[in-house]
Write a structure and sequence with these properties.
Layout: E1 5-10, H1 14-23, E2 29-32, E3 46-48, H2 49-54, E4 62-66, E5 68-72, E6 77-81, E7 87-90, H3 92-105, E8 109-111, E9 114-120, E10 123-128, E11 131-135, E12 137-142, H4 149-154, E13 157-158, E14 161-171, E15 179-183, E16 194-200, E17 203-209, H5 212-221, E18 229-239, E19 242-243, E20 246-247, E21 250-252, H6 268-283, H7 290-293, H8 295-313, H9 316-326, H10 329-338, H11 344-352, H12 355-364, H13 367-372
Parallel strand pairs: 1-2, 1-12, 2-8, 5-15, 12-21
Antiparallel strand pairs: 3-7, 4-7, 5-6, 9-10, 10-11, 13-19, 14-17, 14-18, 15-16, 16-17, 20-21
The structure holds flavin-adenine dinucleotide.
């Protein structure tokens, strides 16, 4: 039987276009993208340097290099710094466009401004403005984000925790432009931390997940003026599982499969690593191996969910005590030695292997160990 395409990828976000690049030399690939242009999604654009380099993402999309973080609670702070960049802050629009251009050069065909509506008789029904048409592919991939229509059509189920995220780009003074700020203050926001990620010395992306009100309270506390906001965006993330990731001749990847870090809400790198697993399994003619090949990411997600559960159960008083431990010289040195932006299991393992730090953490709450081990 002759199909229109070997693989149709629904969603030309970062993960869909990354996958298109991996597949386009082996297959006839179509990318169906509902948006009329790229980079429309709310996203701070922080990606771990090691992952960015491993994934061979374009240097041209990098706006800033981050080599450390300052953690603030309500009453104290500590910082973790390295001599070299640990993460990049990227221009999402540039990243997506460069990936799409590269995929097209390798042979992928893009359908911009075209929405996937559902499957009918094995064909993907698409809508572009008021025109409906369909295409048939041997294999379909849902890279269509958190509210994935493909996942719905596949009958994938989820009990994940979904959160709204709000982010602004604000003008201010950010002298330490190579440090991201992480603020943990449950009195302002019980559900998540706040971040301040400098784009340069006078512009930063500031955001949180939870309520818009808490973001504005934070801006005030951080002495950033609401009147200095030059861009505002909102979006969603989901922490948990959406299953299955593959069924028959369709698979989910990226946010559509909730391949998102529950500790930081970062999803670009995890989605792309899983895109590698999917591409490998398709190229080798064994798509059913896709999920198994994602086992490292699954391990990180399930660990991240335990950390998230622990975070939700902590009071601000307990957070202050944890800051005292993590801000100690011993802990800072250990974190600076072991921290890996995308592998939190590694850092936490190192901390709980230190008998002194473990004993101090257990004193705060024995529950910590239950969640982390
Ligand atoms: C406030 C906020 C801040 C974030 N910050 C970071 C960060 O700093 N670092 C990080 O790694 N992650 C961050 N994330 C998460 C990150 O944005 C996602 O993990 C990432 O965008 C996932 O990429 P994706 O390609 O899987 O999905 P998406 O980026 O959502 O792309 C899906 C694409 O599919 C298209 N689409 C949807 N439905 C259809 C349809 N029916 N037909 C055709 N096309 C369709 C959409 O238009 C979109 O282009 C943040 C998220 C939020 C909300």
């Amino acid at each position: 039987m002759k199909y229109d395409y070997d693989v149709a990828i629904i969603g030309g976000g970062p993960v869909g276009s990354y996958l298109a690049n991996l597949l386009a030399r082996n297959f006839d690939v179509a990318v169906i993208e509902a948006g009329n242009s790229f980079g429309e999604k709310a996203c701070t654009g922080i990606i771990g340097k090691e992952s960015y380099d491993d994934l061979k993402l374009p240097k041209k999309a990098i706006l800033n290099e981050l080599r450390g973080a300052v953690f603030y609670s309500k009453i104290q702070s500590f910082e973790i710094k390295r001599n070299s960049p640990q993460a990049y802050l990227v221009d999402r629009k540039a990243l997506e466009k460069i990936l799409a251009e590269k995929a097209i050069k390798k042979g992928a065909e893009y359908f911009m401004g075209t929405r996937f509506m559902g499957f009918k008789n094995g064909r993907a029904v698409l809508q572009r403005f008021n025109q409906q048409f369909d295409v048939e592919a041997q294999f379909y991939v849902g890279a269509d984000g958190i509210r994935s229509r493909v996942a719905q059509e596949m009958g994938a189920k989820t009990k994940a925790e979904f959160l709204s995220g709000y982010e602004v780009e604000v003008v201010g003074e950010f002298e330490r432009q190579d440090f991201v700020e992480v603020w943990v203050n449950k009195e302002l926001n019980e559900e998540f931390f706040f971040w301040v990620a400098p784009v340069n010395e006078s512009l930063a992306r500031v955001g949180t997940f939870g309520s818009l009100d808490s973001l504005f309270k934070f801006l005030k506390m951080r002495m950033l003026k609401a009147g200095n906001i030059v861009e505002f965006r909102a979006g969603s993330v989901g922490f948990g599982w959406r299953k299955p990731w593959i069924k028959g001749n369709a698979a989910l990847v990226g946010d559509a499969a909730l391949q998102i870090k529950p500790t930081t809400a970062g999803g670009i790198a995890y989605g792309m690593f899983c895109a590698h697993a999917l591409a490998y399994s398709l190229i080798n003619g064994r798509p059913s191996e896709y999920e198994k090949l994602c086992r490292d990411i699954k391990k990180q997600i399930s660990f991240g969910m335990r950390v998230r559960k622990m975070f939700l159960g902590l009071t601000q008083e307990q957070i202050e005590k944890i800051f005292e431990v993590l801000g100690s010289r011993e802990a800072v040195e250990l974190i600076e030695r072991t921290a890996d932006f995308d592998d939190h299991v590694k850092t936490v393992k190192a901390i709980i292997r230190s008998p002194r730090l473990l004993a101090r953490l257990l004193k705060i709450s024995p529950m910590l160990l239950r969640h982390l081990v």
